[in-house]
Design brief:
Distance between the termini: 51 Å
Helix content: over 70%
Oligomer: single chain
């Protein structure tokens, strides 16, 4: 202090007079040095921030390292801290119960990580700096991929396997098949828990907790879009108008090359008669006015061509196209007959089989793939299935279209292709509660308000300023909720499965868990 420096200076001046004793001279000389040191300390200029390019580069590197390392380690450290803390609590309880001396608690991994990070980087000192670093960590962690909790086996014990029985057998199969493709379900969906799914709908509707849930929906949409593109022979992330147009042109070239007048097909009339008799037998009594499928003009034309013993590819191609159009009209028109449409589709398949039988193995494989891809393309072109501008596929609309057009393959589960499995997953795990943005957002201001109050109090008590603390708290509280929602998505399902596997454990825990979840959703 200034008074202290003046006092020491006066004593130093006294030391310049003749001392009465040698020890006094030594003492006064030490005081003179102390006075000079005090004055130097007070007049030393305060360190100024380095705003040079090098200074900014060092600052960005330092903060980037801290934010990146904390974001990556954030949720895993939560789990490790919980485990070590639980071990400390149980250890203390055991020692007290058996009369053993108390043992030191293990240091939390989060504290060890923070010490190592502070030792190699510069930690922010101000409240605003700390809040900004926390907010940056939260935002970055929201962008990081999350491991799939469904990879945790549900059948690690018979009780745990029974805990997953809220899902039907079809849902469990859809979940397993979808996860193999990279699709993900929330813990509430994996467990078949309606209360958890309602809680998840609440979390999904609020800005600071919706990010991780949106990431799940986005991932599932991307997987479905990629599988739809694959089903029409395209390697693309979606099926927008460009992708579908490219696929249509490629298939058209394949059909045109195969359906040529120069390609002669040696048809066996007996084979065609046998195929048509089988179709007639399958739909006997179901067609309008008791008719047979062979009475249809296009089917009669097929019989006439095959009876000649020799047909060219152009004739078969034209007949196949007309049969497809006639079948579609019967299936889609209000005045049409669904059974007749299905019968005509089977006749069309026979015509295509005749044409494919005359091809080389390489051409046959290419033509067979194009036939399957074209059917899938026609499915995607149904109203409401695809948004041609964005390429997004509606899983619900796709599943409904498959259910109408392919009951055996989709509804009865005979077709296990990736496209069908992705559609089944989308149908099985839809949001349980629709969110109009009203009721679920009614409490959306609670967390920022609470964070602002606590931050203001903390800023005032720490001397950093109440206003600054309130602003930092209002930002940090929602960011903390984002991390909490990510932690929930990562670990809730296996934790609940494990708890349900312990007889008698879930009863007393139900109410605290439900109340904690509801409070965290505010």
């Amino acid at each position: 202090m200034a008074g202290e420096a003046d006092f020491l200076s006066d004593l130093a001046a006294t030391g310049s007079q003749a001392p009465a004793h040698p020890d006094e001279a030594s003492f006064l000389a030490d005081l003179a040095q102390a006075a000079q040191a005090a004055q130097t300390t007070q007049t030393a200029p305060a360190a100024q921030p380095d705003y040079s390019a090098k200074g900014w580069a060092n600052f960005i590197a330092n903060e980037g390292t801290r934010v990146g390392a904390t974001a990556i380690a954030g949720v895993p450290l939560m789990a490790m801290n919980a485990g070590v803390a639980g071990r400390n609590i149980l250890g203390d309880a055991y020692n007290k119960a058996v009369g053993n001396p108390a043992t030191p608690d293990y240091e939390l991994p989060g504290k060890t990580f923070e010490d190592i990070l502070d030792a190699h980087t510069t930690a922010p000192q101000s409240l605003l700096g700390k809040a900004a670093e926390f907010l940056g960590t939260s935002v970055l962690s929201g962008k990081l991929p999350m491991p799939e909790v469904g990879n945790v086996p549900a059948n690690f014990s018979p009780a745990a396997a029974k805990a997953a029985s809220n899902l039907t057998g079809a849902q469990q199969q859809a979940l397993a098949a979808g996860q193999k493709l990279g699709m993900r379900a929330t813990p509430g969906q994996q467990l078949g828990s309606k209360p958890l799914q309602q809680l998840e709908a609440k979390l999904e509707s609020q800005p600071w907790t919706s990010g991780p849930f949106h990431a799940i929906a986005s991932t599932n949409g991307k997987v479905l879009g990629a599988q739809a593109a694959k089903a029409i022979g395209e390697d693309a992330p979606n099926v927008d108008a460009t992708v579908m147009g490219r696929a249509n042109d490629r298939m058209g070239n394949v059909f045109q090359n195969v359906r040529s007048a120069d390609r002669i097909v040696q048809a066996d009339p007996a084979t065609t008669r046998g195929a048509l008799e089988g179709i007639d037998s399958e739909f006997s009594g179901l067609l309008p006015n008791g008719m047979n499928v062979t009475a249809h003009p296009l089917v009669a034309q097929l019989q006439k061509l095959t009876d000649s013993g020799s047909i060219n590819g152009l004739q078969l191609g034209q007949l196949s196209s007309k049969l497809g159009k006639a079948a579609y009209k019967q299936m889609s028109s209000g005045m049409g007959d669904r059974d007749l449409g299905q019968a005509l589709y089977q006749v069309k398949d026979h015509v295509d089989d005749l044409l494919q039988s005359a091809l080389s193995p390489e051409d046959s494989a290419e033509y067979g793939a194009a036939r399957s891809q074209y059917r899938n393309l026609m499915l995607l072109l149904k109203p409401g299935v695809v948004n041609p501008s964005t390429g997004e596929v509606s899983g619900k609309a796709l599943a409904n279209a498959l259910q109408r057009s392919d009951r055996t393959g989709f509804t009865l589960g005979k077709n296990q292709s990736d496209l069908y499995n992705a559609a089944r997953f989308s149908q099985a795990f839809r949001p349980v509660v629709g969110d109009s943005g009203t009721a679920t957002r009614a409490g959306s201001g609670i967390m920022p308000l609470l964070g602002s109050i606590l931050g203001g109090l903390g800023g005032h008590m720490s001397g950093m300023g109440g206003v600054e603390g309130a602003g930092a708290g209002a930002l940090a509280a929602p960011a903390a909720m984002n991390l909490a929602s990510r932690a929930y998505l990562r670990g809730a399902a296996p934790v609940v499965r494990g708890a349900k596997a312990v007889p008698g454990l879930m009863g007393p825990l139900k109410q605290p868990l439900l109340m904690g979840g509801l409070l965290s959703a505010q």
